[in-house]
Structure formats: C-alpha cells, structure tokens
Amino acid sequence: MQRDRDAIDAAKLYYREGLSQAEVAAQMGISRPTVAKLLQHARERGFVVIEIHDPQEAGAQVGDRLRALFSLDDVRVVHPPQAPSGAGDHPSIVDDLGIAGARFLEEVVEDGMSVGVSWGKTMLHVARNLRHTHTRARQIVQLKGGSSRSNLSTNNFETMNLFCAAFNAPALALPLPVIFDQVETKHIVEQDSHIADVLNQGRETDLVAFTVGSARRESLVMNLGYLSDAMVEQLVGVAVGDVCSRFYTHDGNIAAPDIDALTVGISLEDLRARPRRVLIAGGTYKAEAIETALWMGLATDLVIDEHTARRVLALHERRKHLQK
C-alpha cells in the first residue's frame, strides 16, 4: 500500500535521520501537514514504537525491590552519570549521596530526637549538604571515636558541627581514638563519667545516620594509624566491610574479635536496636559491605546510587542461591 510506504519513509527521515517535519516535506515533495498525517499513520500502524526510558522510574523499581527484600521503610535511589567504561564509579556519586542523604534526614529528623552520627567521607558530604531547619533535635551524638594518628582526617568535628547547626542541637562528642592499643586502656577511659555518658547516649538514640566502609587497604579507617600492618592484613582477609568501625564478615559475624575489643563506639547489636537507622552509602566497591549490612538488619532506611543498588540485588540473589 502506497500510504504505508510513504508513512515508513517519512518516519525514517523524521525519527532516524532527525529531520524536521518541514525538511521531510521538502525532501519528499509533499506538504508539512501531509508529513504530520503520515507520521501519525506510522504510529497507528505500529511502524513506529516510541519508548521512554526514565532513569527515575527504573530507580524506583530498584528501590521497591530493595525495600521488599530487606524489609526497609524507605529507599532513596540517586542517579549519578554513568562512568566511562572501565573507569569504575562516577566521581559524583558521593556528592549525589550527600545531597539525597541530607534531604532525607531533613524530612525524618523531628523535634526532641536524639540523633546518632558516624563519620566518614560520605557522612561529611551529607553534613555539608544539610540546610538549616526549624527542627530542634535534643542532641547530636557521635557514635564512635574519631581522632586520627595519621595525616588523614576523619572530619568528625566538622560533621558533628554541621549536624548540630542544621538541627539546632547541642553536640555530644567522643574525643577519643576509634581503636585503642590495649583493651585495659580502653576500659579505663570508658569508665570516665563523661565518656560513659556519651557512649550510653549513643545506645539510646532515636535515629542513627551512618555509612559503611569497605574492607580495603585504601579505606579511611585502615589508614588512621591505629592498625598495625598485621591487623590490616587480618581484616582484609576476612572482612567485607565495617559499620562504625565494627568490621564484619559475609556471614554477619565480627571479623576480628580481638580488634573489635579495642574499638570505641556503638556495637552492631546496639545500633541494630535503634528504632530508625538510616544507611547512606554507594559505590560498587562497597556493594558487598552494603548487601551484608542490609542482610544483617542494620538499616531501616537506605540512600544508595542505582548502579550499586543493582549490584546489591545481584549479590543478594547469589547469597540466597548459596544458602539453598
């Protein structure tokens, strides 16, 4: 049928070649209204199928799957640009997570809440993106020690100060190393009334905001000067990640009990007992750490990037297959 042939020709020029309707009309020797009718005919006959791939919609589907699998209350999925092939994660991931994490916390932190906060690169970006709110939290509690023995900074003070400014609350800081040399020294320090109170307040928070770290030699906690080379090798060999510097294995066990005994801050058990637990993390190199943390039930809410979210889903499918 000639009308079908003309409709296909017009559709190819318009959709495939990118010509305007006026240019199609000139090339085919017909009027512009005729081109519009031919394009409509092409769509009606099924010669042209228009698909819209909305990354926001795709991300929502990923979020729904994560929410269902891990019994989460809320999942926010960010959509950073795709990194060049072989380049790993896009550098903007931590910025996007910081913005999304900050907006989410602005929604859920309420007057009178005691809010626990961990530190790290992701949490610093969250803190820097928090806006001043009218919410008056009761206090902002540092969940783990944060002083450094190396030239690297944990940025724990800046993170805490920005949270306090955003939610109009005083700080309960923990001005200690995150890992001590000796268990005996740690126990003595923890008996100080102020330190004991901060640690206890961390265990009683209404909401905690935290991230996960990967068990890689390059991770921040591995390079703060607390851990010997032997300790680092021990952790790299068995751990998949850490939450509040508590390293855990793929099976959800403490990776190195001897190192964990030296660590100052909230335990995984106490963190899991908090009523609202907001995990903000991304980057495919953290996927296994995130999947395990979710499987352990450490989070009630999640902010993550889409690419890592898909990797987490794949890892969880593999976990279920291995458990059969």
TrEMBL record:
InterPro entries: NagB/RpiA_transferase-like, RNA_pol_sigma70_r4_t2, RNA_pol_sigma_r3/r4-like, SorC_transcr_regulators, Sugar-bd_dom_put, WH-like_DNA-bd_sf
Superkingdom of the organism of origin: Bacteria
A UniProt-annotated Pfam family: Sugar-bind
One MF annotation (Gene Ontology) recorded for this entry: sigma factor activity
Annotated ranges, domain RNA polymerase sigma factor 70 region 4 type: 13-45
Keyword annotations of the record: DNA-binding, Sigma factor, Transcription, Transcription regulation
GO biological process per UniProt: DNA-templated transcription initiation
Domain Sugar-binding: 58-314
Family under the similarity heading: Belongs to the SorC transcriptional regulatory family.
PANTHER family, alphabetized: TRANSCRIPTIONAL REGULATOR LSRR (PTHR34294:SF1), TRANSCRIPTIONAL REGULATOR-RELATED (PTHR34294)
Name of the featured protein: RNA polymerase subunit sigma-70
Organism: Corynebacterium riegelii
Taxonomic lineage from the root: Bacteria, Bacillati, Actinomycetota, Actinomycetes, Mycobacteriales
